[in-house]
Write a structure and sequence with these properties.
globular; single chain; 8 helices; 4 strands; 189 residues; alpha+beta
Length: 189
Amino acid sequence: MSNIYSDYDIIGTELDYLEGKKLGFFSFKKRVKLYKEYPFKFEIPSKDYLRAKVFCSDVEELAEYKFSMEDFITILYEDFMRNIRKNNGDLLKMYKLISSRDKRLQLLSGGKQKHLKDEFVVEVSCTIQREEALKFEVLLMEIEEIYNVFYSVEDVLEILVSDFIYELSIGNLKSIMTKIVKYWNTPNE
């Protein structure tokens, strides 16, 4: 394994921890920090950020409680992970889901490409529990091994947010606010 699948390299940290434990380095546990959760930071185009901010404000009004950008991203991430579980970890479906939503490259007239990173971007974040983040990285590692396409956790979070905002702006997400309020008020399964 040569790639790192997030800024935190959770797979690498886990492997280092297991190797140190195997070799009997008792002090190794003190040197390797296995955090309980990680605040993943990534960038989205400023227009998407503003649309998401307005969406969060609308959800707040409907729900009558605080609904932050991080709450919004958390719901998108949890829905993505629920889809993985629902499809029994079917990597082909997950790869197609990610790649079909990746709109970071736009075709311009004349066949030229514009990368969305060329736009003004805003940094956002989402906190993910360690075990979930490890599952996420392992999924991305397997997708790369099978389909030879690299995505980081941050890439996928960016894709999920941008895709949601795109679908919202073209009217494909009817009554989504009500569904989000209902989801947010339902205890986790």
